[in-house]
Amino acid sequence: MITTVQQSILRIGPRVGSAALTLAVAVLIAASPSTQAQTFTDLYNFAGSPDGAHPFAGLVRDAAGNLYGTTYTGATSGYGTVFKVDPKGNETVLYSFTGGNDGGSPVGGLVRDAEGNLYGTTQYGGISGYGAVFKVDKSGSETVLYSFQGGQGDGCNPYGGLVRDAEGNLYGTTPSCGNSNNGTVFKVAKNGNSRLLHSFAGGKDGADPLYTALLLDTKGNLYGVTAEGGSQNDGVLYKLSPKRKLTILHTFKGGTKDGCFAHGTPAMDKQGNLYGTTSRCGSGSEGIVWKVSPQGKETVLHNFAGGSTDGANPIGGVILGAQDNFYGNTDSGGPSDDGTIFQLSNKGTLTLLHSFVGSDGGTPFGGVIRDAKGNLYGATLEGGSGGDGVVWKLTP
Q1: For each of the chain's 396 residues, which pLDDT tens digit applies?
Q2: C-alpha–C-alpha distance, residues 187 and 232, integer Å
């Protein structure tokens, strides 16, 4: 198991909520043999140093089919990497973090521009040690665009990835620091200037946006979730306008009728409905897939119950596919309790496409992506031939 990663989760910085502790416990789940098999390929098995290890986040894909992502640890310094895996499964370490001014220990995934530059965040490092926003170009050269300062005037220790607008501005969240030490929403311009768009107060507006990235619509509105806060302290779904007006679209109630501890990136359909996951609560106590209409009405599409025929603890959100299907993964559940890849119909019918057994990967934290042919791709935090995680492909 990955003791160093678990310790890093628990020492995020000045503050972390119970959501992170719950997730850390989920990482400790033991593995057992499984009998399920699907059309599934491990494209790459991470091997630690000098390779990367333990990718928390999902992947991005270019037109040639190359996959890009981050690892939390591994490489010669132990502070993680930015990597590329080609369609044949060959891996290239594009950049190895040193944990110094260049940043260290990236948890979030990457966003890619038209020129092939990659952008992301690191949990630690940077000039002040509170994490950084970075750019890695096609040659593997890294530029730190912004170093977080922490305290009340800035965020710290980002756990999520970024979203990029047409002008090249980057938007993201931090789970800590800010005015009330409950996390922030931030913007970093192309020239590196940073602006705090919102500081969560920890009350009705939410707290601790953890393991999450933002959704940006065509009008410039940002959508996101928090793991805590809200009237029940079970997290919220919010909208932040270009004029920095925060609107709570849904407050999670927890218990058996709603989810709690929301993570991942919201998805939106053509009608403006939003979709996502919570990692806990619901009738099965193992998280839900939710839908929230433009009018704020929530529908629970699936309650995860764990066990051999269902997933448990979805952290990466869902993506929309053909015929109004949704795809995602869970960090546990399935016959071996090593996590699953699932398909969910718009009527709530769940199909397990693959159940991890440890040797092929385990504990997928990040979300999945889908190509034009319907192939799914993702990464797992653990498992594989070296126990350091894998990059996988599933052909339905």
Answers
A1: 333 343 444 333 333 343 443 343 333 333 333 334 468 999 999 999 889 999 999 999 999 999 999 999 998 899 999 999 999 999 999 999 999 999 999 999 999 999 999 999 999 999 999 999 999 999 999 999 999 999 999 999 999 999 999 999 999 999 999 999 999 999 999 899 999 999 999 999 999 999 999 999 999 999 999 999 999 999 999 999 999 999 999 999 999 999 999 999 999 999 999 999 999 999 999 999 999 999 999 999 999 999 999 999 999 999 999 888 999 999 999 999 999 999 999 999 999 999 999 999 999 999 999 999 999 999 999 999 999 999 999 998
A2: 28
Exposed / middle / buried, residue 101 (Cβ in 10 Å: 0-12, 13-18, 19+) = middle
Residue 36 exposed, middle or buried by CB count within 10 Å (0-12, 13-18, 19+): middle
Q: How far apart are CA 228 and CA 307, in angstroms?
A: 26
| Per-residue tokens: 110 | 């990457």
SS3 state of residue 305: coil
Q: Which residues contact 245 (CB under 8 A, 6 or more apart)?
A: none
CA dihedral 138, 140, 146, 150 (to 10 degrees): 130
| Separation between Cα atoms, residue 165 and residue 218, nearest integer Å | 9
The H or E element that residue 188 is part of is strand 184-188
Decide if domain 3-394 falls under CATH 3.40.30.10: no
